[in-house]
Amino acid sequence: MSARTGVVYLVGAGPGDPGLMTRRSLELIADADSIYYDRLIPDGALDGAREDAELIYVGKQPGVPSVPQDEIGERLTRAAKAGRSVVRLKGGDPFVFGRGGEEGEALRAAGVEFEVVPGVTAGVAATAYAGIPVTHRGDASAVAFVTGHEDPEKAETALDWPALAAFPGTLVFYMGVKRLSENAASLIEGGRDPEQPAAAIERGTWPGQRTVTATLGTIAASVEREAIKAPALIVIGDVAARREELHWLERRPLHGRTVVVTRARAQASGVAKTLQGLGAQVVELPAIRIESLTGTDEARAAAKAIGDYDLICLTSPNGVKLLFEAIAEAGLDARALAGATVAAIGPGTARALAAEGIAADVIPERFVAEALVEVLEDVEVEGKRVLIARAAEARDVLPDALRERGASVDVVALYETVREAPDEKAIAAAQGADYVTFTSSSTVKNLTEALGERFPAAARIVSIGPVTSETVRESGLEVAVEADRHDVDGLLSALLADAATH
Predict the structure, then answer these.
(1) 399-457 pLDDT tens trace
(2) Which domain-ending residue is among 378, 398, 418?
(3) How far is CA 489 from each of CA 159, 258, 301, 353, 465, rounded to the nearest angstrom?
């Protein structure tokens, strides 16, 4: 169901991992006219918003002036009464220490309709990511969620510390770092065993999540020593000791590593998701963007005459995608290639062809132009028409070799790679990177020229293959790892192997 005008949706965005956002939350974000969002929403949570949607930050940050709560309610009310569909996007769940109840009451008082979309709360998500089950048949049959930082305007605490100390189960404190020492002391004074296991979870479910374990009596000192910062949860109870056996997040091969991805933005997301699944914190610094040249007379003529070619060579998935777009614009489809031999430079290009219904006839074992030249030696090309569909700035190794063998070669540029201006926030995030990945010479040239002295000097460079590696060296940098298989899967395998030893 789409978002309705005049309605405010109080939406939980989950604890930080974008994969924990609900389907309903993503639907509403994609449909809303206005989105009022908090600080602790997942990275990329707003990527699906409409281009014309209003995105208004109303988050609260410690030590920084923020929008008063009453004003947030007034803004939501005005937007809804103006006939807009409004999403109020909050980290976690809006009704678990999210002040969603207050905002709902303000909207009801103003006569504005609202709906609540629950989110996964950090109390169960961050603990699970840390390997701590908040309930366990052998340890705890109950769990209590407690605010560790009450409203400072309250005349007295609303927490019954002796009752919390006697609570027969797990205590999970939200926002509990700042007052951890006092809260721990209050529990111990109330009768809680100072030797009971405890844990602090920083940035739960986010890349770089950290967990510190101790006892109730020592957790405050451990948190201070390890410099655990907000946002963080404090867990107190016997279940915290289960972490030693059940922790899983830190076991992922790239946990705690920061990896810079430099592919074009449209292609980077797939690589980024794979790396994130392996535990890495990913910084997308697209050094290039792909600009189509299928509208040129040259490209249109080649697409229209596609059935006249005896051999068609494709050197990238981008080339495949754009060639078939040009073929479709010419009123043709994959059947027009029926009489041709189709060569792909590697498995990635072959997969792109397969998606269009074409099985590549020729794929070299090494994914470089020289290898494609070698494997085509078994294909008769003398007097044959050959189409090489590629990027504008590609090397001439392949067309030169085929012409020497007597082929009539048309080289058609279907796209060009253009430098992408890096985002300043992403540049800052990349400074502490462990790895920078390069998938082409153009990504090397453009990123090094764009960053200059701000290139992350301590990062290990992972190259997709020898041509890219040579460009890295020409740029004055050192290649730490080169993929044996010159495709993205090979690059990821090389990175994982290196991470296992460094």
Answers:
(1) 999 999 999 999 999 999 888 888 888 899 899 999 999 988 888 988 898 898 999 98
(2) 418
(3) 53, 18, 34, 17, 12
User: d(Cα 88, Cα 383) in Å, to the nearest integer?
Assistant: 66
Write down the residue that tokens 């111990």 correspond to.
188
Measured on CA atoms in the order 218, 223, 226, 232, is the torsion positive or negative? Answer: positive
Strand locations in 285-443 (E): 288-292, 311-314, 341-344, 385-391, 408-419, 435-438
Q: Are residues 413 and 425 in the same domain?
A: no
Report which residue type is found at 296.
Answer: T
Q: Which residues are catalytic?
A: 38, 60, 175
- Residue length, the chain? 502
Pair 281, 318 in one domain: no
The CA angle 483-487-491, to the nearest 5 degrees, is 40
In this structure, is the dihedral angle defined by the CA atoms of residues 459, 464, 466 and 471, taken in order, positive or negative? negative
The C-alpha atoms of residue 182 and residue 175 are separated, in whole angstroms, by: 13
Provide the residue range defining the domain that includes 470: 258-287+420-499
CB atoms within 10 A of CB 59: 16
The DSSP symbol for 63 reads T
Give the Cα separation of 440 and 363 in Å (integer): 19
Torsion of CA 85, 86, 89, 90, to 10 degrees: -130
C-alpha–C-alpha distance, residues 8 and 89, integer Å:
10
- Average pLDDT over the chain, rounded to an integer: 92
Q: How far is Cα 77 from Cα 6, in angstroms, rounded to an integer?
A: 9
> Quick one: 164 and 115 in the same domain?
no
- Region 132-146: mean pLDDT is 96
CB neighbours (10 Å) of residue 263? 24
Residue 118 has pLDDT above 60, yes or no: yes
Show the beta-strand stretches assigned E in 44-196: 54-57, 86-90, 113-117, 143-147, 170-174
Cα 8 to Cα 115: distance, rounded to the nearest angstrom:
6
Residues 77 and 221 in one domain: no
pLDDT band at 64 (very low <50, low <70, confident <90, very high): low
87 within 8 A of 34, measured Cβ to Cβ: yes
| Final residue in a domain of this structure, among 196, 222, 249 | 249
